[in-house]
């Protein structure tokens, strides 16, 4: 009986850990997009926030897939 409770607790804490890491991953994605937008602003002569945001989202998500 004790062994079953231990296994259930390990699974429960594993699910919680995966959830926390997923939230942290979303935060890292937003930080990467923000950094890309800042770089676009510094290197571009005619800066458009909407275009830069869309470009950076596509570029970062493409890099994650590869």
How do you describe this structure in short?
The chain is mostly helical and about 70 residues long. The chain has helices spanning about 1-45, 50-65.
- The count of DSSP E runs of length 2 or more, i.e. the number of strands, is 0
Figure out the total of helices: 2
Which geometry do the CA atoms define? Answer: rod-shaped
Residues in β-strands, percent = under 5%
Largest sheet: none
Termini distance? 45 Å
Mean pLDDT across all residues, rounded? 85
Class inferred from helices and paired strands? mainly alpha
The value of Rg in angstroms is 20 Å
Helicity range:
over 70%
Order of helices and strands: HH
Low-confidence stretches: none
Structural description of this entry:
There is one protein chain. The protein has a domain at 24-66. The model has no long low-confidence stretch (mean pLDDT 85). The N and C termini lie far apart (45 Å). It has helices at 2-43, 49-65. It has 66 residues and is mainly alpha-helical. It contains two helices and no strands. The longest helix has 42 residues, at 2-43.
